[in-house]
Amino acid sequence: MRVLVIGGGGREHALLWKLMQSPRVTKVYCTPGNGGMGAHAVTPPISSTDVESLVRFARENQIDLTVVGPEASLMAGVVDAFEREGLAVFGPRKSAARVEGSKRFAKELMEKYGVPTGRYRAFTDPEAAIRYIREQGAPIVVKADGLAAGKGVIVARTLDEAEKAVEDLMRSRTFGKAGEEIVVEEYLEGEEISLMAFVDGETVRPMVPAQDHKPVFDGDRGPNTGGMGAYSPVPQISEERIRQIVQEILEPMARGMEQEGLRYRGVLYAGLMMTDAGPKVIEFNARFGDPETQVVLPRLDSDLAEILSAVTEGRLQEISIRWKPESSLCVVMASEGYPGDVVKGKKIRGVPAATGETMVFHAGTSREEGALITAGGRVLGVTALGADLQSAREAAYRSVESIEFEGAHYRKDIGARGVKARQT
Ligand code: AMP
Ligand code: GLY
Question: pLDDT tens digit string along 316-353?
């Protein structure tokens, strides 16, 4: 089986790494890929949103299955175009991917199908948004309606911060068109969790849960990023809660979309807050999470290629999915300036060779005359598998400490809450 992964981040590297372990996969391609993939995969420099070139590439190279990584590809209609050409592709169509592409659309679906989420209001007029914010009071959350690489969300502690967020998104257009419309949402308090599921329309098969670390600095301080690290499992959240999330959130959402005539096939990712009133949805994503994928896939015991094929063929029901009991943890090493403007082109040294237990998933890296250099905000996802979270954490940080590039920064507290929960 010849497989193409679209994208070039840590998530795609993890997908590639797992797919290569499948006995049915004979050749892997990744477009555009990154500096860590070349040894294993062919990485032609095709943009993830260049739909026509991607279709042509898949046809010319007789790709048997294409896996779409980034949300931008979904929203550009990659899946729709592949399906029109009769090419097997993993991911939801553009119409269904709007569950991520438009926060307002997601909120309306949740309302209609009784999926618990925070109170909200959508605005196209900044004045009206500010009036509503003053009525509601702080803390309050302001979000760009469209895609903003996980950064278009401002958790405002004060009214001033909230009003500034509206100004930035709607008037200064910090995130461009994504700020044409905004959503103002109730502030939810609790433990955060990411639960992804394979969905083929009817059948929903959850993966193991993970916890992301969105803010850039230790102790959840500083601006939000795409994610600075993750770990799995999340011992502070019980199995019973996870089942509740599947039954009360993921399944009704998948079925609701089916009823709307928007069959959902791919990964449905629920970002959740475990509030005192039960789990509530913060957001849905229409794809694998990044960096959640880097900790979830190392725990997958089954053949990923088999699962993805089953989803695209609508026979997920027939497949059983096994998970490893081990824990995993990923520390993201980022470039100077991230999540703002970043400094690139720095030489990376000391990346340890992958073992069974430690994997360094590349994100913003490239090769210059053979040398590995930084090429983006999130550079490496240093990941380890261990008997428990504490040992996974120690192993991941040991690898991190061996790696060097100028301006590198990372959080030192990835997994700290999970480790603490396990002890008490
Ligand atoms: P999102 O991109 O919607 O996942 O938001 C990014 C991060 O902002 C989330 O992971 C949360 O940590 C935080 N966040 C988003 N919405 C809320 C909310 N309603 N209440 C509290 N925190 C939130
Ligand atoms: N780590 C959050 C996301 O993938 O959106």
Answer: 999 999 999 999 999 999 999 999 999 999 999 999 98
User: Measuring CA to CA, how many Å separate 412 from each of 15, 213, 216, 218, 378?
Assistant: 25, 11, 11, 6, 15
Q: What domains sit in the chain, N to C, each tagged with a CATH number?
A: 2-91 (3.40.50.20), 125-180 (3.30.1490.20), 191-318 (3.30.470.20), 327-423 (3.90.600.10)
Binding site membership of 179 for ligand 2 (Cβ less than 6 Å)? no
- Integer Cα distance of 364 and 378 in angstroms: 6
CB of 187 shorter than 6 A to ligand 1: yes
Does residue 289 have its Cβ closer than 6 Å to ligand 2? yes
Is there a contact between 418 and 211 (Cβ–Cβ < 8 Å)? yes
- Torsion, Cα 254 256 258 259, to 10 degrees, reads 170
Q: What is the pLDDT of residue 356?
A: 79
Between CA 318 and CA 109, with CA 260 as vertex, the angle to 5 degrees is 100
For ligand 1, say whether the CB of 197 is within 6 Å of any of its atoms: no
Can you list the alpha helix ranges (DSSP code H) found in 271-423? 292-296, 304-312, 389-402, 416-423
- Residues counted in the chain: 424
pLDDT level of residue 153 (50, 70, 90 thresholds): confident
Name the residue of 68, 74, 288, 292 to mutate for ligand 2: max ligand atoms within 8 A of Cβ: 292
State the closest ligand 2 atom to the C-alpha of 212, by its place in the atom list counted from 1: 1
The atom of ligand 1 lying closest to the CA of 187 is 20
Which residues sit opposite 366 in a β-bridge? 373
How large is the greatest C-alpha to C-alpha distance in the chain, in angstroms? Answer: 59
With a 6 A CB cut-off, is 282 part of the ligand 1 pocket?
yes
pLDDT at 78: 98
Q: Which residue type, as a one-letter code, is found at position 335?
A: S
- Name the residue with the closest Cα to ligand 2, atom 4: 289
Alpha-carbon distance values, 4 to 8, 58, 59 (Å): 12, 7, 11
CA distance 44 to 274: 42
Is the shortest distance between the CB of 150 and ligand 2 below 6 Å? yes
Distance CA 231, CA 228 (A): 11
* Residue among 143, 153, 212 to mutate when testing ligand 1 (max atoms within 8 A of CB): 153
Q: Structure pTM? A: 0.94
User: Of 279, 179, 235, whose CA–CA distance to 393 is shortest?
Assistant: 235
